[in-house]
Structure formats: C-alpha cells, structure tokens
From TrEMBL:
Membrane topology field: Multi-pass membrane protein
Protein name from the UniProt record: Growth hormone inducible transmembrane protein
UniProt signal peptide: none
Subcellular location: Membrane
GO terms under cellular component: mitochondrial inner membrane
Family label: Belongs to the BI1 family.
Keywords associated with the record: Membrane, Transmembrane, Transmembrane helix
Segments traversing the membrane: 83-101, 127-146, 158-181, 193-220, 241-261, 273-293
C-alpha cells in the first residue's frame, strides 16, 4: 500500500494545453467517401448498409473520441473534478461540526484522552514529533535539491529511466525504514528514517518550479486540511473510520492506475484528462479519507499495543502513512492552485 501511495505521488502531467488541432482526419474523410460510393448502386440495401457501417465503426469512433483533443470536454472534466473536491470539503466541514460540537452519541478519542495512561500519551506525542520532523527534513531536502541544477535537470527529464530510478529510490527507502525494528536497532532505524525523508524531498523539489507565494499558500491550505481532518478523527468515535480500509484500498487502486496512465497519455485528450482528474481530484479526496483512517489507526495502536509484547509500538512506521497522506494532499493542492492561476492568465 505504501508503494501505491508512492506511485500516486509521482509527477502529474502538465496542464498546458495546445489548442491547435485539425478538424478532420484524412482517414475519416476517405472512409466517408468510400461508404457513400457503396451506398449509391442500390437503394434497396441502403438502410442495412448504413446500419452495418455504424456497427463496424462504433469501436473506432469511441477510440477516436477518447484520444481526440477537445478543449470543451477537457474543461468539463476538470470542472467536474473541482466540484467533486468541493463536495468532499463540504462533507468534511459537516463532519467537523457534527463531531466537534459533540452531537454524536459515542465518545471520541479526545474524550478518552482524559483516562489514557501516560505511555499512550507518550506514544502519540512521539508519533507527532516524528511526523513534524519528517516534514521539516523533506522541506530542507527539497530546498537543497532545487538549488542543484544537475539534479533538477535530471528530474525534469521525465524519461522512463528517471521515473524508474526515482520510484525505486522511494520504495527502497520506505522498505528499509519499515524493516528495521524500532526498539532493537534505534540507531539504524533513525538513519533510515533520515534517508527516507531526504529521498522524499525529490518530490517536493519538483514543485519548486512554481511561484514561491503559491507554494506558501499550498502549504497553508494543506496545514488547514490536515489539521481539520485530524480534529475530525480525534472527535469522532474511536473506530468510526477504521472500517473504511477495504473501500479505501479499492479507491487507491483506481488512483494508482490513473496515476500510471496519466504518465503516458497526454492531458490534451479526453482519456488523458479523465485519468488526470481521477488521479488529482479523486486522489485529493481519497488521501483526505486515508488521513482519517491512518490517524485513528495510530490512536488504536497506541492504546492496544502491549508494552512488553512481541510486536511493540513503532512510531516511525505508523507515522509513515500519515506522512505520505500529507505529501499527496500537498502535491495535489499545489497543482490545483497552479492550474487555477494559469487559467486566469
């Protein structure tokens, strides 16, 4: 699942559209003229011939419609994605008001925190500190990478070799930090954590091509989204969002496939724009829901993990999912702000 989130975090295709398109293809014109010649000899079979031609060309027409550039359709798809995000934001705001005002009959984690033992509070505090440290280290790594012309030129190529090497580095660093036990090898564990945070700075470094004030706005918006969703997870019943694991896994599969497809299909086609919208707008809503799920998962593990059991509480491993959710949300918010500013221009 962590690897799928890493793929969803890959660079989305550019939204710079080029409206210079031809009105009709020569192949389509030749086929139409040929069909007209076939229809002229006999009026008796005209209806059957037309039906046969339409049936035979249905698949081809669908293919051409999916890959034909259409600015009007692309704009509609983009607007549908933005309305989907707005609907998700309205639902999240309603949930925040509902659970925040104590309208639910069940008690949430924020009420249970009063009776938590000290070790549970320490576990949640350490997880939060590691999350803040990962975000800070990633920001520093992104700044360092953005100031290196060699690394930025390599990352901006967009070739299969670059994508493969970046993906392998991110997945390898994630697997390394998760494989080291937190209690048995604290030194190597923290070194792997530092390495993982530095490697993830590559993703944020690619966003530095945007304007500075835009990135600051995206960071503030992301902080508001993460803070609001974390409050919802704390105020909601303890296991309210833990039942969403299976639907979220299915949704992650759709976003995963859309992210892969958007790497190869140009966003100037209907198919490419659809995959792009699913990967960006659908991914924003999906990872917001994942943030609710992962936050309550951290709270649940902090409560039930035994202090002297075989599987002990690992704040770094549990923090990684929330960290990936935050990066995915930030990337999509920054992309939405960038496309919005380009559209105004």
């Amino acid at each position: 699942m962590l690897a799928a989130r890493l793929v969803c975090l890959r660079t989305l295709p550019s939204r710079v559209f080029h409206p210079a398109f031809t009105k009709a293809s020569p192949v389509v014109k030749n086929s139409i003229m040929k069909n007209q010649r076939l229809l002229t000899p006999s009026r008796e079979y005209a209806t059957k011939t037309r039906i046969g031609i339409r049936r035979g060309r249905t698949g081809q027409e669908l293919k051409e419609a999916a890959f034909e550039p259409s600015m009007e359709k692309i704009f509609k798809i983009d607007q549908m994605g933005r309305w989907f995000v707005a609907g998700g934001a309205a639902v999240g705001l309603g949930a925040l008001c509902y659970y925040g005002l104590g309208l639910s009959n069940e008690i949430g984690a924020i009420e249970k925190a009063v009776i938590w033992p000290q070790y549970v509070k320490d576990r949640i505090h350490s997880t939060s500190m590691y999350l803040a440290g990962s975000i800070g280290l990633t920001a520093l790594s992104a700044i360092a990478i953005s100031r290196s012309p060699v690394l930025m030129n390599f990352m901006m190529r967009g070739s299969l070799v670059t994508i493969g090497m970046t993906f392998a580095a991110m997945v390898g660093a994630g697997m390394l930090v998760q494989s080291i036990p937190y209690d048995q090898s604290p030194g190597p564990k923290h070194l792997a954590w530092l390495l993982h945070s530095g490697v993830m700075g590559v993703v944020v470094a690619l966003l530095t091509i945007l304007v500075g004030p835009l990135l600051i706005r995206a960071a503030w918006y992301t902080a508001g989204i993460v803070g609001g969703l974390s409050t919802v997870a704390m105020c909601a019943p303890s296991e309210k969002f833990l039942d969403m694991g299976a639907p979220l896994g299915v949704g992650l599969g759709f976003v995963f496939v859309s992210s892969l497809g958007s790497m190869f299909l140009p966003p100037t086609t209907v198919a490419g724009a659809t995959l792009y919208s699913v990967a960006m707008y659908g991914g924003l809503v999906l990872f917001s829901m994942f943030l609710l799920y992962d936050t309550q998962k951290v709270i649940k593990c902090a409560e039930v993990s035994p202090a002297y059991g075989v599987q002990k509480y690992d704040p770094i491993n549990l923090m990684l999912n929330i960290y990936m959710d935050t990066l995915n949300i930030f990337k999509r918010v920054a992309t939405m702000l960038a496309t919005g500013s380009n559209r105004k221009k």
